[in-house]
TrEMBL record:
Membrane-crossing residue ranges in chain numbering: 12-33, 45-65, 77-100, 120-139
Keywords: Kinase, Membrane, Transferase, Transmembrane, Transmembrane helix
Name of the protein described by the UniProt record: Histidine kinase
InterPro entries for the chain: Bact_2-comp_sensor_kinase, HATPase_C_sf, Sig_transdc_His_kin_internal
Lineage of the organism: Bacteria, Pseudomonadati, Bacteroidota, Flavobacteriia, Flavobacteriales
Top-rank lineage group of the source organism: Bacteria
Domain Signal transduction histidine kinase internal region: 166-243
Entry-linked PANTHER family: SENSOR HISTIDINE KINASE YPDA (PTHR34220)
């Protein structure tokens, strides 16, 4: 298909050039013979003006403009244009005189076939040359705009692909630590032949299904994300047992919103991964609610000030938020003596399904 377009394109351009010069020829016959009855003389005389008009026009279009004007060598362009106009004027006058002499025999006696004087004929030729140059510049600007838009679209497409690859990489980083701990816990339960092992395997299976098949979607229902969090928390309860106190409240959240998959889990994962036990218990409180047109998700876990949270979690989520919800989110982190708190707020209009 592309090859056929490339073949047709030059042919179409050639046809347009031919059409333009046909129009120019009829312009000359009308311009030179307006009010004259000797159409034969006028038509033949127009032939003498056509070659010099075409040569000068194409010299401007294919040499002076691309070599000097488009390369911003304006002084040289003006200088060579002046030289060209001087030489062109001489050639135009020469062709006019040559035409008058050559066509003298077919000129009727006591008649004036041409109704324009020499200066007007020269100005007419320059008018056509100016029109040809102007059309060429307009077409060049159009091609430049199209090429620039195409280049910009390719650049944006490449950027989008890079963003998508980076997002996939960030998503893949989220769960390795959690999956490793969960498998170890299941292994321990299996050795003890615990009745909780099948339930833990089922919940882990649901999580893996979500991670593997939902992660490639740009958005998921908020309800699915919350169910994913509930399975995650249930697994952590089985793993921590009596050393964990966790409260998860999302009753004030609607489910008809869309959100980037696995956007909330890093906050919860960090709470379990980096939270500190105080008096032998890790406390985690998770709240999701709507307020002032924003979705707010808060995670608070017991912590010790000296145990600064590290790892890929929060850095990961910052980068994802910046790419997905730029200028539509707020992320606050608060660290006190006995607790660590993260609060994410996103404008609901940026999430709600239309």
């Amino acid at each position: 298909m592309k090859k056929s377009i490339q073949v047709v394109h030059p042919i179409l351009i050639g046809m347009l050039h031919g059409l333009f010069w046909i129009v120019v020829y009829f312009f000359y016959t009308y311009f030179l013979g307006y009010g004259s009855v000797d159409t034969t003389y006028v038509n033949r005389f127009s032939y003498f003006l056509m070659p010099i008009t075409m040569v000068v026009s194409y010299f401007f279009i294919y040499h002076l403009i691309p070599k000097y004007l488009l390369r911003k060598k304006r002084f040289l362009f003006v200088l060579y244009s002046i030289y060209t106009m001087i030489i062109a004027t001489f050639l135009i006058v020469l062709s006019i005189l040559y035409g008058l002499v050559l066509l003298f025999e077919i000129r009727p006696e006591n008649s004036t076939p041409l109704t324009k004087t020499l200066p007007f004929i020269v100005l007419g030729v320059y008018f056509i040359i100016s029109m040809a140059v102007a059309i060429s510049l307009v077409l060049h600007n159009y091609r430049f705009a199209v090429d620039n838009e195409d280049l910009e679209n390719k650049f944006l497409h490449t950027q989008l692909q890079l963003k998508e690859q980076e997002l996939k990489f960030l998503k893949m980083q989220i769960h390795p630590h959690f999956l490793f701990n969960s498998l170890n816990t299941i292994y321990g339960f299996a050795l003890k032949k615990s009745e909780e092992a099948p339930e833990m395997i089922l919940k882990l299976s649901n999580l893996l299904d979500y991670i593997l098949y939902q992660i490639d979607k740009p958005y998921v229902l908020l309800e699915d994300e919350l169910l994913h969090l509930e399975d995650y928390i249930s697994l952590e309860k089985m793993r921590f047992r009596d050393t964990l106190e966790v409260h998860f409240d999302h009753t004030l959240l609607q489910s008809n919103y869309r959100i980037a998959p696995m956007l909330l889990i890093p906050f919860v994962e960090n709470a379990f991964k980096h939270g500190a036990m105080i008096d032998g218990v890790l406390k985690v409180e998770i709240n999701g609610y709507e307020r002032d047109g924003r979705l707010t998700f808060e995670v608070v876990n017991s912590s010790k000030r000296n145990e600064t949270i590290k790892g890929i979690g929060l850095d990961n989520i910052r980068r994802r938020l910046e790419m997905l919800y730029k200028n539509a989110y707020d992320l606050e982190i608060e660290e006190e003596e006995s607790y660590f708190k993260t609060s994410l707020s996103i404008i609901l209009n940026a999430l709600k399904e239309k």
